[in-house]
Amino acid sequence: MTTDSISEVGIDEKRQLFARPSTARFPYIYREALDIHWEPKRGYLYATVPRDWSYLECFQHIIGAAAVQGYDLHLAPSTAWSNIPAELSTEIQQWFYSRDAA
Question: What is the pLDDT averaged over residues 73-94?
Fold first, then answer.
C-alpha cells in the first residue's frame, strides 16, 4: 500500500468534508461506488453532505475509500484544518491516532 500524507482537511462551501492528499490523485474513486468523490480542480476527496453520518464518519469513510484504491492516507503535523471546528479536529485526530496505535 502506498502511503501519502493529508495536506488539508476541511469543510467546503457545500458543507462537504474533504481531505486533500499531498501527492495522490483519485480520478477513478467513483468506480468503487462508496459515495466518495474526487474534485479534480481542487485536488481533494470529499464525502457528500452528511445525512445520517457525522463528519467523523465521513472522514473515516474517505480514509477507507482511499485504502480500497491502495493508499494509506495519514494526518501529519503540517495538516491544515480549514473550516473545521476545534472539537471536530480533536475528534478526527483522536480517532486517527488511536487507530494507528491499535
Answer: 97
Question: How many structural domains comprise the chain?
Answer: 1
Residue 95, helix vs strand vs coil: helix
State the pLDDT confidence band at 100, using cuts at 50, 70 and 90. low
pTM for the predicted model, two decimal places: 0.93
97: which residues sit within 8 A by CB, 6+ positions away?
75
Residues 6+ apart with CB under 8 A from 100: none
Q: What is the pLDDT of residues 24-41, one digit of tens each?
A: 999 999 999 889 999 999
List 8's β-bridge partners, or say none.
20, 80
Domain CATH for 49: 2.20.20.40
Q: Which structural domain range is residue 35 located in?
A: 2-101
How many C-beta atoms surround the C-beta of residue 61 within 10 A? 17
